[in-house]
Amino acid sequence: MVEVSRVSADAQNEPTHRLNVIGFHCPIPIAELKKALQNMKGGDILEVLSDDPETCHDIPLLLMRLNHNLISIEDNAGEHKFIIEVKQ
Q: Which residues are catalytic?
C-alpha cells in the first residue's frame, strides 16, 4: 500500500509531504500522485520518490494539466525525486 507521509519543513521548498512509489510501475505512480494531490492544500510541497523511468515523462505532463508547479527533478542511480508545489 502506498501512503503519503507528512514531514516537517522549515525552509522554503522543503517538502511538507512525501509519496514513495519506489517499486511500483505505470500506472500506479501517476494514480497515487493524483490521489495525493487531491488531498493536499495550496502551498504544500510534495516530494515524490520513484524508480519507474516513465515518471520522468508522465509526472511533468500531469502537473502541467493540473496546474501544479514542478520545482525540481533529481535522478540518482535510477531513482527519481520530484519536488512539487501544490497550487489551489
A: 26
DSSP 22: T
Q: C-alpha grid cell for residue 87?
A: 497550487
Q: Is 36 exposed, middle or buried (0-12, 13-18, 19+ CB in 10 A)?
A: buried
Cβ 2 vs Cβ 32: under 8 Å: yes
CB of 14 within 8 A of CB of 46? no
Is the entire prediction scored with pTM above 0.90?
Answer: no
The 10s digit of each residue's pLDDT in 17-49 is 999 999 999 999 999 999 999 999 999 999 999
Cβ proximity of 25 and 52 under 8 Å: yes
Structural domains of the chain, with CATH:
19-85 (3.30.110.40)
